[in-house]
Write a structure and sequence with these properties.
The complex is a heterodimer of chains A (284) and B (268). Chain A contains eleven helices and ten strands. By secondary structure, chain A is of the alpha/beta class. Chain A has one domain: P-loop containing nucleotide triphosphate hydrolases (Rossmann fold), CATH 3.40.50. In chain A, the strands form two sheets. A six-stranded mixed sheet of chain A has the order 6-7-8-3-9-10, sandwiched between helices. In chain A, 48% of the residues are buried. The model of chain A has no long low-confidence stretch (mean pLDDT 90). Chain B has 268 residues and is an alpha/beta fold. Chain B has eleven helices and ten strands. In chain B, a hairpin with a 2-residue loop joins strand 9 and strand 10. The longest helix of chain B is centred in the middle third of the chain and has 16 residues. The mean pLDDT of chain B is 89. Classes of the chains: A alpha/beta (284), B alpha/beta (268). The interface between A and B is large, with 45 and 49 residues.
Chain lengths: 284, 268
Protein backbone atom coordinates (compact mmCIF):
# COMPACT_ATOMS: atom_id res chain seq x y z
CA UNK A 1 0.00 0.00 0.00
CA UNK A 2 1.89 3.07 1.22
CA UNK A 3 2.11 6.15 -0.97
CA UNK A 4 2.21 6.19 -4.77
CA UNK A 5 2.61 9.27 -6.99
CA UNK A 6 2.36 9.10 -10.77
CA UNK A 7 3.37 12.11 -12.79
CA UNK A 8 2.20 14.45 -10.05
CA UNK A 9 2.57 18.22 -10.41
CA UNK A 10 1.60 20.91 -7.94
CA UNK A 11 1.18 24.55 -8.86
CA UNK A 12 0.11 27.84 -7.37
CA UNK A 13 -2.04 30.11 -9.50
CA UNK A 14 -0.75 33.63 -9.41
CA UNK A 15 -2.54 36.58 -10.94
CA UNK A 16 0.54 38.31 -12.28
CA UNK A 17 2.87 35.47 -13.19
CA UNK A 18 0.36 32.79 -14.21
CA UNK A 19 1.00 29.24 -13.06
CA UNK A 20 4.02 28.69 -10.80
CA UNK A 21 5.07 25.04 -10.44
CA UNK A 22 6.28 23.96 -7.01
CA UNK A 23 6.46 20.31 -8.11
CA UNK A 24 6.78 18.86 -11.60
CA UNK A 25 6.14 15.32 -12.85
CA UNK A 26 6.91 13.42 -9.67
CA UNK A 27 6.70 9.64 -9.93
CA UNK A 28 7.68 7.61 -6.88
CA UNK A 29 6.36 5.12 -4.39
CA UNK A 30 6.95 4.72 -0.68
CA UNK A 31 6.34 1.47 1.16
CA UNK A 32 4.16 1.39 4.27
CA UNK A 33 6.89 -0.25 6.35
CA UNK A 34 10.65 -0.43 6.95
CA UNK A 35 11.74 2.49 4.76
CA UNK A 36 14.06 5.21 6.14
CA UNK A 37 14.03 8.04 3.63
CA UNK A 38 15.86 11.37 3.72
CA UNK A 39 14.14 13.99 1.60
CA UNK A 40 16.75 16.61 0.81
CA UNK A 41 17.49 19.50 -1.55
CA UNK A 42 18.13 23.21 -1.52
CA UNK A 43 15.85 25.84 -0.03
CA UNK A 44 12.71 26.20 -2.15
CA UNK A 45 13.26 22.92 -4.04
CA UNK A 46 9.83 21.57 -3.11
CA UNK A 47 10.62 19.23 -0.18
CA UNK A 48 7.98 20.54 2.21
CA UNK A 49 5.36 20.77 -0.55
CA UNK A 50 6.00 17.13 -1.45
CA UNK A 51 5.69 16.13 2.22
CA UNK A 52 2.30 17.83 2.50
CA UNK A 53 1.11 15.84 -0.53
CA UNK A 54 2.09 12.66 1.31
CA UNK A 55 -0.60 13.15 3.94
CA UNK A 56 -3.09 14.95 1.69
CA UNK A 57 -2.67 18.40 3.21
CA UNK A 58 -2.13 19.46 -0.39
CA UNK A 59 -3.86 17.95 -3.44
CA UNK A 60 -2.03 17.28 -6.76
CA UNK A 61 -2.78 19.85 -9.47
CA UNK A 62 -2.33 17.08 -12.04
CA UNK A 63 -1.26 13.44 -12.09
CA UNK A 64 -2.43 10.70 -9.73
CA UNK A 65 -1.70 10.09 -6.07
CA UNK A 66 -2.82 7.19 -3.87
CA UNK A 67 -2.24 7.07 -0.13
CA UNK A 68 -3.10 3.72 1.47
CA UNK A 69 -5.33 2.98 -1.50
CA UNK A 70 -7.23 6.27 -1.28
CA UNK A 71 -7.10 8.53 -4.31
CA UNK A 72 -6.09 12.07 -3.35
CA UNK A 73 -8.38 14.60 -4.96
CA UNK A 74 -10.43 17.73 -4.36
CA UNK A 75 -12.95 17.65 -1.55
CA UNK A 76 -16.06 17.57 -3.76
CA UNK A 77 -14.87 14.47 -5.66
CA UNK A 78 -13.90 12.48 -2.57
CA UNK A 79 -15.58 9.24 -1.57
CA UNK A 80 -13.53 8.53 1.56
CA UNK A 81 -12.88 10.41 4.79
CA UNK A 82 -9.32 11.71 4.77
CA UNK A 83 -9.09 11.30 8.52
CA UNK A 84 -8.11 7.69 7.69
CA UNK A 85 -5.09 8.92 5.76
CA UNK A 86 -3.87 10.89 8.75
CA UNK A 87 -4.11 7.78 10.92
CA UNK A 88 -1.67 6.14 8.52
CA UNK A 89 0.59 9.08 7.69
CA UNK A 90 1.68 11.49 10.46
CA UNK A 91 3.45 14.76 9.72
CA UNK A 92 5.48 16.80 12.21
CA UNK A 93 5.91 20.37 11.00
CA UNK A 94 9.05 22.52 11.03
CA UNK A 95 7.63 24.78 13.69
CA UNK A 96 5.75 22.69 16.21
CA UNK A 97 4.17 25.60 18.06
CA UNK A 98 1.47 25.58 15.39
CA UNK A 99 0.59 22.04 16.36
CA UNK A 100 0.19 22.57 20.09
CA UNK A 101 -3.07 23.94 21.43
CA UNK A 102 -4.21 22.08 24.54
CA UNK A 103 -3.82 23.34 28.10
CA UNK A 104 -1.34 20.73 29.26
CA UNK A 105 1.34 18.66 27.57
CA UNK A 106 -0.46 15.42 28.43
CA UNK A 107 -3.82 16.62 27.04
CA UNK A 108 -2.12 17.76 23.89
CA UNK A 109 -0.63 14.34 23.25
CA UNK A 110 -3.94 12.66 24.19
CA UNK A 111 -5.83 14.71 21.61
CA UNK A 112 -5.25 12.42 18.62
CA UNK A 113 -6.15 9.10 20.27
CA UNK A 114 -9.25 10.76 21.80
CA UNK A 115 -10.12 12.11 18.37
CA UNK A 116 -9.78 8.62 16.92
CA UNK A 117 -12.29 7.29 19.45
CA UNK A 118 -10.15 5.89 22.28
CA UNK A 119 -11.44 6.13 25.87
CA UNK A 120 -9.82 8.64 28.23
CA UNK A 121 -7.89 5.89 30.02
CA UNK A 122 -6.66 4.29 26.80
CA UNK A 123 -5.72 7.68 25.34
CA UNK A 124 -3.75 8.56 28.47
CA UNK A 125 -1.88 5.26 28.32
CA UNK A 126 -0.95 5.84 24.67
CA UNK A 127 0.05 9.45 25.38
CA UNK A 128 2.27 8.53 28.33
CA UNK A 129 4.03 5.87 26.30
CA UNK A 130 4.56 8.36 23.42
CA UNK A 131 6.00 10.96 25.84
CA UNK A 132 8.27 8.30 27.31
CA UNK A 133 9.50 7.41 23.83
CA UNK A 134 10.69 11.00 23.29
CA UNK A 135 12.19 11.06 26.84
CA UNK A 136 9.97 13.95 27.91
CA UNK A 137 10.32 14.47 31.70
CA UNK A 138 7.32 13.19 33.67
CA UNK A 139 7.25 16.18 36.03
CA UNK A 140 6.47 18.42 33.03
CA UNK A 141 3.33 16.57 31.80
CA UNK A 142 1.02 19.15 33.44
CA UNK A 143 2.81 22.22 32.10
CA UNK A 144 1.18 24.36 29.47
CA UNK A 145 2.90 23.77 26.10
CA UNK A 146 3.37 27.51 25.53
CA UNK A 147 5.90 27.91 28.34
CA UNK A 148 8.17 25.19 26.93
CA UNK A 149 11.42 25.94 25.12
CA UNK A 150 11.54 25.46 21.34
CA UNK A 151 13.24 22.07 21.65
CA UNK A 152 10.77 20.85 24.29
CA UNK A 153 7.81 21.92 22.11
CA UNK A 154 9.26 19.90 19.29
CA UNK A 155 9.48 16.80 21.49
CA UNK A 156 5.83 17.23 22.52
CA UNK A 157 4.67 17.65 18.93
CA UNK A 158 6.55 14.48 17.97
CA UNK A 159 4.90 12.61 20.87
CA UNK A 160 1.56 13.93 19.56
CA UNK A 161 2.18 12.30 16.19
CA UNK A 162 3.47 9.06 17.77
CA UNK A 163 0.23 8.83 19.76
CA UNK A 164 -1.64 8.52 16.44
CA UNK A 165 0.34 5.31 15.86
CA UNK A 166 0.78 5.96 12.12
CA UNK A 167 2.61 3.57 9.75
CA UNK A 168 4.48 6.36 8.01
CA UNK A 169 5.99 9.25 9.98
CA UNK A 170 7.20 12.40 8.25
CA UNK A 171 9.42 14.86 10.10
CA UNK A 172 10.12 18.27 8.55
CA UNK A 173 13.54 19.48 9.81
CA UNK A 174 13.20 17.57 13.09
CA UNK A 175 16.67 18.42 14.40
CA UNK A 176 16.78 22.15 13.55
CA UNK A 177 17.16 24.03 16.83
CA UNK A 178 17.61 20.84 18.84
CA UNK A 179 20.72 20.48 21.02
CA UNK A 180 23.19 17.62 20.37
CA UNK A 181 21.99 15.47 23.26
CA UNK A 182 18.35 15.66 22.23
CA UNK A 183 19.29 15.30 18.56
CA UNK A 184 21.01 12.02 19.34
CA UNK A 185 17.98 10.85 21.33
CA UNK A 186 15.69 11.79 18.44
CA UNK A 187 17.75 10.06 15.77
CA UNK A 188 17.91 6.97 17.98
CA UNK A 189 14.13 7.11 18.31
CA UNK A 190 13.77 7.27 14.51
CA UNK A 191 16.12 4.30 14.19
CA UNK A 192 14.17 2.26 16.77
CA UNK A 193 10.82 3.13 15.21
CA UNK A 194 12.20 2.00 11.87
CA UNK A 195 14.06 -1.14 12.93
CA UNK A 196 11.95 -2.41 15.81
CA UNK A 197 8.45 -1.11 15.08
CA UNK A 198 8.96 -1.39 11.28
CA UNK A 199 7.65 2.13 10.68
CA UNK A 200 8.52 4.03 7.53
CA UNK A 201 10.39 7.20 8.49
CA UNK A 202 10.72 10.18 6.15
CA UNK A 203 12.88 13.07 7.32
CA UNK A 204 13.37 16.39 5.58
CA UNK A 205 16.77 17.68 6.60
CA UNK A 206 19.83 19.73 5.69
CA UNK A 207 21.99 17.67 8.05
CA UNK A 208 24.06 15.39 5.82
CA UNK A 209 25.57 13.67 8.89
CA UNK A 210 22.12 12.27 9.66
CA UNK A 211 21.51 11.37 6.01
CA UNK A 212 24.69 9.33 5.67
CA UNK A 213 24.43 7.69 9.07
CA UNK A 214 20.75 6.71 9.16
CA UNK A 215 18.93 6.92 5.83
CA UNK A 216 18.49 3.83 3.66
CA UNK A 217 17.15 5.85 0.73
CA UNK A 218 17.67 9.48 -0.31
CA UNK A 219 15.35 11.50 -2.51
CA UNK A 220 16.98 14.70 -3.77
CA UNK A 221 14.64 17.47 -4.93
CA UNK A 222 15.86 20.12 -7.32
CA UNK A 223 13.66 22.84 -8.81
CA UNK A 224 10.50 20.90 -8.05
CA UNK A 225 11.68 17.63 -9.59
CA UNK A 226 13.16 14.41 -8.23
CA UNK A 227 16.82 14.70 -9.20
CA UNK A 228 18.07 11.57 -7.43
CA UNK A 229 16.43 8.56 -5.76
CA UNK A 230 18.83 5.95 -4.35
CA UNK A 231 21.10 5.04 -1.44
CA UNK A 232 23.16 7.69 0.45
CA UNK A 233 26.32 5.78 -0.48
CA UNK A 234 25.54 6.11 -4.19
CA UNK A 235 24.60 9.79 -3.78
CA UNK A 236 27.85 10.77 -2.02
CA UNK A 237 29.90 8.76 -4.51
CA UNK A 238 28.57 10.87 -7.38
CA UNK A 239 30.83 13.64 -8.71
CA UNK A 240 31.52 16.79 -6.72
CA UNK A 241 30.00 18.83 -9.55
CA UNK A 242 26.83 16.80 -9.27
CA UNK A 243 26.60 17.35 -5.48
CA UNK A 244 27.29 21.08 -5.97
CA UNK A 245 24.61 21.34 -8.67
CA UNK A 246 22.05 20.05 -6.15
CA UNK A 247 23.42 22.61 -3.64
CA UNK A 248 24.12 19.80 -1.19
CA UNK A 249 26.92 19.42 1.30
CA UNK A 250 28.93 16.29 2.16
CA UNK A 251 28.70 14.73 5.61
CA UNK A 252 31.52 15.78 7.98
CA UNK A 253 33.03 12.26 7.83
CA UNK A 254 33.55 12.54 4.06
CA UNK A 255 34.71 16.18 4.23
CA UNK A 256 37.33 15.36 6.86
CA UNK A 257 38.55 12.24 4.99
CA UNK A 258 38.94 14.23 1.76
CA UNK A 259 40.73 17.06 3.57
CA UNK A 260 43.18 14.61 5.17
CA UNK A 261 43.82 12.91 1.81
CA UNK A 262 44.51 16.23 0.16
CA UNK A 263 46.50 18.06 2.86
CA UNK A 264 48.17 15.25 4.80
CA UNK A 265 48.73 12.89 1.86
CA UNK A 266 46.68 10.06 3.36
CA UNK A 267 44.93 7.51 1.19
CA UNK A 268 41.66 7.04 3.07
CA UNK A 269 38.48 5.69 1.52
CA UNK A 270 36.45 8.93 1.70
CA UNK A 271 33.06 7.22 1.76
CA UNK A 272 32.68 6.88 5.52
CA UNK A 273 29.12 7.02 6.74
CA UNK A 274 29.99 8.37 10.17
CA UNK A 275 32.86 9.76 12.24
CA UNK A 276 33.51 6.49 14.08
CA UNK A 277 34.02 4.58 10.84
CA UNK A 278 36.41 7.35 9.72
CA UNK A 279 38.38 7.01 12.98
CA UNK A 280 38.64 3.23 12.43
CA UNK A 281 39.83 3.82 8.87
CA UNK A 282 42.58 6.22 10.05
CA UNK A 283 43.71 3.83 12.79
CA UNK A 284 43.82 0.80 10.47
CA UNK B 1 29.26 50.25 21.10
CA UNK B 2 29.32 47.83 24.02
CA UNK B 3 26.96 45.61 25.97
CA UNK B 4 27.34 45.32 29.72
CA UNK B 5 25.29 42.74 31.62
CA UNK B 6 25.45 42.75 35.42
CA UNK B 7 23.95 40.08 37.63
CA UNK B 8 20.99 39.48 35.30
CA UNK B 9 18.27 37.05 36.37
CA UNK B 10 14.85 36.25 34.94
CA UNK B 11 12.05 33.95 36.06
CA UNK B 12 8.97 33.12 33.96
CA UNK B 13 5.62 33.19 35.71
CA UNK B 14 4.54 29.78 37.03
CA UNK B 15 8.17 28.60 37.04
CA UNK B 16 10.04 27.79 40.21
CA UNK B 17 13.56 28.27 38.93
CA UNK B 18 15.17 31.23 37.23
CA UNK B 19 15.43 30.75 33.45
CA UNK B 20 18.65 32.75 33.58
CA UNK B 21 20.47 33.28 36.83
CA UNK B 22 23.03 35.94 37.83
CA UNK B 23 24.59 36.44 34.38
CA UNK B 24 27.45 38.95 34.08
CA UNK B 25 29.56 39.73 31.02
CA UNK B 26 30.74 42.55 28.76
CA UNK B 27 30.87 42.48 24.96
CA UNK B 28 32.87 45.12 23.05
CA UNK B 29 32.48 46.31 19.47
CA UNK B 30 33.88 44.07 16.74
CA UNK B 31 33.38 40.95 18.88
CA UNK B 32 31.74 37.86 17.44
CA UNK B 33 30.39 35.86 20.36
CA UNK B 34 28.72 32.45 20.23
CA UNK B 35 26.30 31.50 22.97
CA UNK B 36 25.95 27.73 23.13
CA UNK B 37 24.01 25.47 25.47
CA UNK B 38 21.40 22.73 25.65
CA UNK B 39 17.68 23.29 24.95
CA UNK B 40 16.24 25.20 27.88
CA UNK B 41 19.67 26.40 29.07
CA UNK B 42 18.50 30.03 28.90
CA UNK B 43 20.10 31.12 25.60
CA UNK B 44 16.93 32.43 23.98
CA UNK B 45 15.72 34.01 27.22
CA UNK B 46 18.99 35.94 27.35
CA UNK B 47 18.52 37.08 23.73
CA UNK B 48 14.99 38.28 24.50
CA UNK B 49 16.20 40.16 27.58
CA UNK B 50 18.90 41.90 25.55
CA UNK B 51 16.24 42.93 23.02
CA UNK B 52 13.93 44.19 25.73
CA UNK B 53 11.30 41.66 24.58
CA UNK B 54 11.18 40.40 28.15
CA UNK B 55 11.32 42.84 31.01
CA UNK B 56 14.28 42.12 33.24
CA UNK B 57 13.51 41.19 36.81
CA UNK B 58 16.89 41.51 38.45
CA UNK B 59 20.22 42.97 37.41
CA UNK B 60 21.30 45.55 34.83
CA UNK B 61 21.79 45.71 31.07
CA UNK B 62 23.62 48.66 29.53
CA UNK B 63 23.85 49.25 25.80
CA UNK B 64 26.59 51.86 25.27
CA UNK B 65 26.11 53.49 28.71
CA UNK B 66 22.32 53.58 28.34
CA UNK B 67 20.51 51.37 30.88
CA UNK B 68 17.94 49.16 29.15
CA UNK B 69 14.58 50.16 30.59
CA UNK B 70 11.15 51.22 29.41
CA UNK B 71 12.22 54.86 28.85
CA UNK B 72 15.21 53.98 26.67
CA UNK B 73 13.81 50.93 24.92
CA UNK B 74 12.93 52.71 21.67
CA UNK B 75 16.31 54.41 21.49
CA UNK B 76 18.18 51.18 22.26
CA UNK B 77 16.24 49.07 19.74
CA UNK B 78 17.57 51.29 16.96
CA UNK B 79 20.97 49.76 17.64
CA UNK B 80 19.73 46.17 17.77
CA UNK B 81 18.78 43.68 15.08
CA UNK B 82 17.59 40.15 15.77
CA UNK B 83 16.94 37.17 13.50
CA UNK B 84 14.96 34.32 15.02
CA UNK B 85 14.90 30.63 14.15
CA UNK B 86 11.30 30.90 12.98
CA UNK B 87 11.13 33.73 10.45
CA UNK B 88 7.34 33.39 10.15
CA UNK B 89 7.07 35.27 13.41
CA UNK B 90 8.74 38.37 12.06
CA UNK B 91 6.92 39.16 8.82
CA UNK B 92 4.48 42.03 8.89
CA UNK B 93 3.97 43.10 5.26
CA UNK B 94 2.54 41.42 2.16
CA UNK B 95 5.65 41.67 -0.01
CA UNK B 96 9.33 41.11 0.64
CA UNK B 97 10.27 44.72 -0.18
CA UNK B 98 7.48 46.17 1.98
CA UNK B 99 8.60 44.03 4.85
CA UNK B 100 12.13 45.40 4.68
CA UNK B 101 10.73 48.92 4.21
CA UNK B 102 8.69 48.52 7.41
CA UNK B 103 11.86 48.28 9.50
CA UNK B 104 13.33 51.29 7.73
CA UNK B 105 10.17 53.35 8.25
CA UNK B 106 10.47 52.69 11.98
CA UNK B 107 13.95 54.18 11.85
CA UNK B 108 12.51 57.22 10.00
CA UNK B 109 14.71 56.66 6.96
CA UNK B 110 14.19 59.09 4.05
CA UNK B 111 11.86 57.26 1.59
CA UNK B 112 14.04 58.41 -1.33
CA UNK B 113 16.91 56.33 0.06
CA UNK B 114 14.91 53.23 0.90
CA UNK B 115 14.78 51.66 -2.56
CA UNK B 116 18.58 51.50 -2.80
CA UNK B 117 18.93 50.14 0.74
CA UNK B 118 16.37 47.41 0.07
CA UNK B 119 18.02 46.42 -3.22
CA UNK B 120 21.48 46.17 -1.74
CA UNK B 121 20.30 44.15 1.29
CA UNK B 122 18.41 41.69 -0.95
CA UNK B 123 21.38 41.30 -3.22
CA UNK B 124 23.65 40.49 -0.24
CA UNK B 125 21.45 37.48 0.56
CA UNK B 126 20.79 36.54 -3.10
CA UNK B 127 17.07 37.24 -2.93
CA UNK B 128 16.85 40.07 -5.51
CA UNK B 129 14.44 38.05 -7.68
CA UNK B 130 11.98 37.75 -4.83
CA UNK B 131 11.61 41.47 -4.14
CA UNK B 132 7.91 41.51 -5.10
CA UNK B 133 7.09 38.05 -3.70
CA UNK B 134 4.59 37.43 -0.95
CA UNK B 135 6.51 36.24 2.15
CA UNK B 136 4.12 33.36 2.90
CA UNK B 137 4.88 31.74 -0.46
CA UNK B 138 8.60 31.54 0.28
CA UNK B 139 10.23 28.40 1.69
CA UNK B 140 11.57 28.37 5.26
CA UNK B 141 15.14 29.01 4.13
CA UNK B 142 14.12 31.83 1.79
CA UNK B 143 12.16 33.51 4.58
CA UNK B 144 15.24 33.36 6.75
CA UNK B 145 17.27 35.07 4.02
CA UNK B 146 14.68 37.86 3.84
CA UNK B 147 14.74 38.25 7.63
CA UNK B 148 18.52 38.65 7.44
CA UNK B 149 18.16 41.20 4.60
CA UNK B 150 15.78 43.18 6.81
CA UNK B 151 18.46 43.41 9.49
CA UNK B 152 21.17 44.32 6.97
CA UNK B 153 19.08 47.19 5.62
CA UNK B 154 18.59 48.60 9.10
CA UNK B 155 22.34 48.45 9.71
CA UNK B 156 22.22 48.07 13.52
CA UNK B 157 25.36 48.11 15.68
CA UNK B 158 24.42 44.90 17.50
CA UNK B 159 23.12 41.84 15.69
CA UNK B 160 21.63 38.91 17.59
CA UNK B 161 21.17 35.69 15.62
CA UNK B 162 18.99 33.13 17.41
CA UNK B 163 19.53 29.80 15.59
CA UNK B 164 19.24 31.85 12.42
CA UNK B 165 20.97 29.37 10.11
CA UNK B 166 19.17 26.23 11.20
CA UNK B 167 16.92 26.17 8.12
CA UNK B 168 19.46 27.26 5.52
CA UNK B 169 20.96 24.98 2.87
CA UNK B 170 24.78 24.88 2.45
CA UNK B 171 24.89 27.76 -0.02
CA UNK B 172 22.60 29.81 2.23
CA UNK B 173 24.82 29.10 5.25
CA UNK B 174 27.95 30.07 3.37
CA UNK B 175 26.40 33.34 2.13
CA UNK B 176 25.19 34.02 5.65
CA UNK B 177 28.59 33.42 7.24
CA UNK B 178 30.21 35.72 4.69
CA UNK B 179 27.69 38.44 5.53
CA UNK B 180 28.45 38.01 9.25
CA UNK B 181 32.20 38.23 8.59
CA UNK B 182 31.71 41.53 6.72
CA UNK B 183 29.58 42.92 9.56
CA UNK B 184 32.26 42.02 12.08
CA UNK B 185 34.87 43.82 9.96
CA UNK B 186 32.67 46.91 10.12
CA UNK B 187 33.00 46.76 13.92
CA UNK B 188 29.53 45.41 14.67
CA UNK B 189 28.83 43.20 17.68
CA UNK B 190 27.63 39.77 16.59
CA UNK B 191 25.91 37.50 19.10
CA UNK B 192 25.20 34.09 17.63
CA UNK B 193 23.05 31.62 19.51
CA UNK B 194 23.62 28.21 18.02
CA UNK B 195 23.78 24.44 18.43
CA UNK B 196 25.99 24.07 15.40
CA UNK B 197 29.43 23.56 16.90
CA UNK B 198 31.12 23.86 13.50
CA UNK B 199 29.50 27.26 13.15
CA UNK B 200 30.40 28.37 16.69
CA UNK B 201 34.05 27.63 15.81
CA UNK B 202 34.02 30.67 13.51
CA UNK B 203 33.45 33.11 16.38
CA UNK B 204 36.13 34.77 18.53
CA UNK B 205 34.58 34.09 21.87
CA UNK B 206 32.14 31.53 23.24
CA UNK B 207 29.83 31.67 26.25
CA UNK B 208 28.69 28.21 27.37
CA UNK B 209 25.33 28.20 29.18
CA UNK B 210 23.84 25.40 31.24
CA UNK B 211 20.72 25.45 33.42
CA UNK B 212 20.43 29.23 33.17
CA UNK B 213 23.99 29.97 34.21
CA UNK B 214 27.26 30.74 32.48
CA UNK B 215 29.38 27.62 32.73
CA UNK B 216 32.33 29.08 30.89
CA UNK B 217 33.20 32.23 28.95
CA UNK B 218 36.41 32.33 26.92
CA UNK B 219 38.25 32.13 23.62
CA UNK B 220 36.37 29.88 21.20
CA UNK B 221 39.40 27.76 20.32
CA UNK B 222 40.03 27.01 24.00
CA UNK B 223 36.41 26.17 24.74
CA UNK B 224 36.16 23.86 21.74
CA UNK B 225 39.12 21.90 23.17
CA UNK B 226 37.47 21.58 26.55
CA UNK B 227 35.71 18.23 26.29
CA UNK B 228 34.80 18.24 29.99
CA UNK B 229 32.94 21.58 29.89
CA UNK B 230 31.12 20.69 26.67
CA UNK B 231 30.05 17.37 28.16
CA UNK B 232 28.83 19.09 31.33
CA UNK B 233 26.83 21.48 29.13
CA UNK B 234 25.41 18.48 27.23
CA UNK B 235 27.09 19.58 24.01
CA UNK B 236 29.38 17.85 21.54
CA UNK B 237 32.83 18.53 20.17
CA UNK B 238 32.87 19.85 16.60
CA UNK B 239 33.27 16.87 14.20
CA UNK B 240 36.95 17.30 13.29
CA UNK B 241 37.92 17.83 16.94
CA UNK B 242 35.94 14.73 17.92
CA UNK B 243 38.06 12.75 15.45
CA UNK B 244 41.20 14.49 16.78
CA UNK B 245 40.47 13.63 20.43
CA UNK B 246 39.40 10.07 19.59
CA UNK B 247 42.62 9.41 17.68
CA UNK B 248 44.76 10.81 20.49
CA UNK B 249 42.94 8.66 23.06
CA UNK B 250 43.60 5.61 20.88
CA UNK B 251 47.32 6.41 21.00
CA UNK B 252 47.57 7.69 17.43
CA UNK B 253 50.69 9.86 17.13
CA UNK B 254 51.18 10.99 13.53
CA UNK B 255 51.64 14.66 14.44
CA UNK B 256 51.33 15.92 10.88
CA UNK B 257 47.94 14.27 10.38
CA UNK B 258 46.75 15.57 13.76
CA UNK B 259 47.86 19.08 12.83
CA UNK B 260 45.97 18.97 9.53
CA UNK B 261 42.93 17.60 11.33
CA UNK B 262 43.06 20.50 13.77
CA UNK B 263 43.18 22.98 10.89
CA UNK B 264 40.26 21.28 9.16
CA UNK B 265 37.96 21.99 12.11
CA UNK B 266 37.26 25.58 11.15
CA UNK B 267 36.74 24.65 7.50
CA UNK B 268 33.78 22.29 7.93
Amino acid sequence: MGIRLENVSYSYNKKKKGTVYALKNITLSIDDKDEFIALIGETGSGKSTLASLFNALKIPSSGEEYVFGIKIQERRKRKENYNDIRKHVGLVFQFPEYQLFEETVLNDVMFAPRNFGKSKEEAEKIAVSALEMVHFPKEMYDKTPFTLSGGEKKMVSIAGILSMEPDILIFDEPTAGIDPENRNKLTKLFKDLNEQAHKTIIIITHDMNIVSKYAKRVIVMSEGEVAFDGTPKKLFESSEDQIASFNLDYPDSIKIAKYLNEKAGLNLNPNQNDLNSLIKEILS
Amino acid sequence: MSIIVKNLSYKYEDEEKNAVNALSFTIENGEWVSIIGHNGSGKSTLAKLLMGLLEKKEGEIYIEDLPLNENNLYEIRKHLGIVFQNPDNQFVATSVEDDIAFGLENLEVDPALMEGMIDSALSEVNMTNYKKSEPYLLSGGQKQRVAIAGILAMNPEIIILDEATSMLDPEGKEDFINVVKKLKEKGKIIIMITHDMNEALLSDRTIVMSNGEILKDGKTEEIMMDEKTLKEARLELPSALYVYHSLKKAGYNNEEVLKVLWESASKM
